[in-house]
Amino acid sequence: MASFATKTLSLVSLLGASLQVTGLLASLLFVAGPANADVAESSPLPQSLSSLPQTIERALNTFNTPGIAVGILHEGKTAYLAGHGLRDVTSNAPVTPETYFYLASVSKAFTAASLGILVQDNKLSWDDKVIDHLPAFQLADPWVTREFTIRDMLTHRSGLASGAGDSMLWPAPSRFSRDEVIYNLRFLSPQTSFRSQFAYSNVMYIAASAVADNLYDGEWAELVEQRLFQPLAMSCFAAGLPERATDNVANGYGYSEDRGLYAIHRNDVSEDSRVWSAAGAITCNAHDMLKWLSMWLARGRTPDGQTLFEESTVDAMLSAVTPLSVSSVDQQWFNTEYSGYALGWRVTDQFSHNVISHTGTISGFQTFVAFVPAKNLGIVLLNNGSDYGTRGAIMQTILQAYLEPGTEQRDWIAAYADFQKDRQARFLASYQKPHGSGTVLLATSEYLGQFTDRWFGGMTVFKENDRVRIRSEKMPTLTGTLTPFEDHTFVIRWDNEDAMEDAFIHFSVSTQRRVTGFTLYPYTLKEKSNHAYRDMRFTRSEKIKIND
Fold first, then answer.
1. What does the alpha-carbon distance between residue 205 and residue 173 come to, in Å, rounded to a whole number?
2. Which stretch of DSSP H or E encloses residue 517?
3. How many CB atoms lie within 10 A of CB 94?
4. Whole-angstrom distance, CA of residue 515 vs CA of residue 467
5. Of 149, 259, 480, 487, which is most buried, counting CB atoms within 10 Å of its CB?
6. SS3 helix, strand, coil % of the chain, rounded to 5?
7. CA dihedral 336, 337, 338, 344 (to 10 degrees)
């Protein structure tokens, strides 16, 4: 049955995009962290948050999350900074405020800000054409290629399908280079017209880092670390975690009812730089992320009073460009009337206040960062689980306490748990499992061979211990087993169940009954125009001979 864990929701601006079936985590550890003296002295929590530690523990239990680091900055002072739970369940190592996590898509704000530095250096303008600074940039439409600006690159309005090109990034590790990712943009077909709709794009942020490389005396990672982290005294890293910082790192985990809690080692924080660093692999901790939020709340000024960003640059980065839909749940829960995407940030109204935020999701890590200028409030949540309910429930508990003081607090843990159960029930009620005869028309040996797509590269279908298997050349963890379905179609059961849902593989056959290639499609009866395989067309380059 298709996994319910990867359904995309319209309320992405506030809830995140990955659903996970809930259960019970056996062990939990709470460790209080020290106040962040580098930001300012401590500030008292609102009375309605007097039980915040217990709320955090309950969220971890409810949504199967091993650990989380939570930081709250209010009126220039640290109101809360603590680690809860475990960063490593095998060694029982606790999360602390200094524990390193992948920021996931919270990294995008740093990439946008790095280009903001170049704007202030007069090396770049937000409305410069991308091809003027990155000649290798090319999309399928020549006119869009010519007109595409730096602002377009950062605001998810390219016209590509949501997540287009992510197949070159995940499941990690990826053997695609950044240059290859950028080159392959030309092979991704548009789903909508240019600048007409929001469609999330990780590959555009990877391309943005190449623009920075071409304009900075160094690389994008050095620009982030030298011009952002250093002025803010942040011990964070843009290109892998150095060995000196590996003593306090969170391991990522997933959860399912069948497997319980399990480690996701492919996304381990390591010294290796990821090709998707600019989109989601910056590494930081809650203690230092409060410094980042402090700068935004101070309108571009560092804690020591220096100007990191001019007012005009701050306004440009925090002004919504691409409209986002407002769901009925947004309206019901948060009284939301507008939502939009700025440069690496989401901007929305919540409880009648302008909230600037971003979530981050990769398998094993969930993050949520938000700040509210009118309340001089900043919040950072970094956790090492795979259920968005943890970050969502804790974030909304904190936001409501500050934005609606004196009102009755909603039980956000129950709200998210009920929401997930309802969505799961709706999915199961409408789900139809594909049924085939379990046979194919040719001998399985006829389907074996090496196949190539012009941008995704090679895939090999081969025999292994009486099983038909498939593997990718560029994505080494993309492997699976083929089972016959019908006609010339098999079902791929991917080995990484938490990363990839089952898929159909449809082999094309010539009039001479020779296999000539294949296409891939999600394992569903529904017609889908937007899926990971939409632009892949594999042709056979070599047949594998076997001795039956």
1. 18
2. strand 515-522
3. 18
4. 19
5. 480
6. 30, 25, 45
7. -10
Which pair of tokens denotes residue 117? 């530095």
Give the separation between CA 464 and CA 482, rounded to whole angstroms: 11
Tokens of 364: 């094993």
Non-local CB neighbours of 189 within 8 Å, separated by 6+ positions: 140, 160, 161, 534, 535
Partners of 255 in the beta sheet?
Answer: 261
**537 touches 505 (CB < 8 A):** no
For Cα atoms 463, 468, 470, give the angle at the middle one, nearest 5 degrees. Answer: 95
Structure tokens at 295: 């700068």
Single-letter amino acid code for the residue at 266: R
Distance CA 273, CA 239 (A): 5
Residue 343 main-chain phi, psi, to 5 deg: -100, 90
Nearest Cα to 235, choosing from 279, 288, 271? Answer: 288
User: Could you tell me the two tokens for 21?
Assistant: 């079936």
541: number of Cβ within 10 Å: 12
pLDDT digits (tens, 9 = 90+) for 366-422: 999 999 999 999 999 999 999 999 999 999 999 999 999 989 999 999 999 999 999
pLDDT tens-digit series, residues 109-119: 999 999 999 99
Collapsed DSSP state (helix, strand, coil) of residue 476:
coil
With 0-12 / 13-18 / 19 or more C-beta atoms within 10 angstroms meaning exposed / middle / buried, residue 387 is buried
* CA–CA–CA angle 210, 213, 215 (5° rounding): 115
Residue found by looking up tokens 């083929």 in the block: 482
The pair of structure tokens assigned to 417 is: 């748990």
Taking every pair of Cα atoms in the chain, the longest distance, rounded to a whole number of angstroms, is: 78
Q: Which two structure tokens, joined as six digits, stand for 499?
A: 């990363």
Q: Do 486 and 506 form a contact (C-beta atoms < 8 A)?
A: no
Give residue 518's identity as a one-letter amino acid code. F
Total-model pTM: 0.91
